[in-house]
Write a structure and sequence with these properties.
single chain, 4 strands, two-stranded antiparallel ribbon, about 350 residues, two-stranded antiparallel sheet, mainly alpha
Length: about 350
């Protein structure tokens, strides 16, 4: 079975290359659908496949930059990208990301990068999963209350509405973002982008894992605009992140190119699927994916505690990550096909 493994020349490790293809295609679909680079799955996925964590971070940055750019262009055609908002957030993202990358280099020098990054992933993913499901079930309660009164909620309504409180902070200059339909202080998206950029640099993600829900719950973007705008931001920040990690010698370009080929196809499918699945459905599916990813990282962390079943935990973590990517991608693809069929049928009836 040696032919299933490929030597990565820069990282100096042998990798199960079919796993790279599955990650590329699957995360292309998921990233285009959720509005993020998908590094929250790819970075731990690459680490589980055998890449040292610093190389997993740098390699995913390179793969993510190309894929997110493709998805952004597609979302732009649907009017889902607020370019003004994305540009405002870019400065904070770049500064935060560089600080995060420097922190990773320091953690690598003291030999703690793998452990610290994995635990940080667990904490972050757990918090985001709670927030997404809390929002989903709170929204369902609002819908039931509205239905009892014979009313119907606006499609842009969310369960969690922290953005309404944050919009009351009127620190000048104030800005209006037309595509997102929001009016807020210039400093709100800047602060959000700095914090997400800092975590992005440490975790090796484009920031979409944090920024997409932050755009919805803190900035107040409609879900579909948050998806497209976040992809624009991911593309720009990932280009910078890929450059800084490549300069530091932590990017495996062979693996990045293998994943990017599959991701280019997958991103088109995921982007089109957002036309046919409503905002709350996108957020719920996102929450399920976050939970599965957290469980796979936890299995990796448990290996030193249970040496007798270390091999079993390693296999289970790999199967969970690849299986999660495959099943979520299949779900999105099926829903896209179903939605397209209904659209075609309705047009024929007209």
């Amino acid at each position: 079975m040696d032919w299933l493994y490929m030597l990565m020349p820069i990282a100096g490790v042998k990798i199960f290359w079919p796993g790279l293809i599955v990650l590329g295609v699957g995360v292309g679909i998921i990233g285009g659908f959720f509005g993020m680079g998908g590094a929250w799955m790819v970075t731990p996925g690459l680490n589980i496949l055998g890449f040292p964590m610093a190389f997993a971070i740098g390699t995913d940055m390179a793969h993510m930059a190309g894929k997110s750019l493709i998805s952004t262009l597609r979302h732009g055609k649907f009017g889902n990208v607020d370019y003004k908002l994305g540009i405002v957030m870019l400065a904070g993202t770049v500064i935060g990301m560089e600080m995060g990358a420097q922190l990773v280099m320091w953690l690598e020098r003291i030999g703690s990068v793998d452990k610290v990054v994995r635990w940080l992933y667990i904490v972050l993913l757990s918090g985001i999963a709670w927030m997404v499901f809390h929002d989903y079930f709170k929204l369902k309660a609002k819908q039931r209350a509205a239905a009892a009164k014979g009313e119907e909620l606006d499609k842009s309504t969310t369960g969690v509405e922290w953005h309404k409180t944050l919009h009351k902070i009127k620190i000048p200059p104030m800005m209006h973002f037309k595509a997102a339909g929001i009016h807020c202080s210039f400093w709100l998206p800047v602060v959000v982008s700095f914090l997400t950029g800092l975590l992005a640099g440490v975790l090796g993600i484009g920031g979409g894992l944090i920024r997409m829900p932050a755009l919805i719950y803190m900035v107040g973007c409609p879900t579909h605009v948050a998806v497209g705008t976040d992809l624009f931001e991911v593309a720009m920040s990932s280009l910078y992140g890929a450059g800084t990690f490549t300069f530091k010698g932590r990017t495996e370009l062979v693996a990045a190119m293998i994943m990017l080929v599959g991701a280019a196809v997958g991103a088109q499918i995921g982007t089109v699927a957002t036309k046919y699945i409503k905002g709350s459905g996108i957020r719920f599916a996102f929450g399920l994916a976050v939970v599965g990813c957290a469980l796979s990282i936890l299995m990796k962390l448990m290996q030193p505690w249970f040496p007798s079943i270390k091999g079993l935990l390693d296999i289970a973590a790999t199967v969970l990550v690849l299986g999660l990517v495959s099943l979520m991608s299949l779900y999105i693809f099926v829903r896209m096909v179903q939605g397209a069929k209904k659209e075609i049928a309705s047009k024929k009836q007209q």
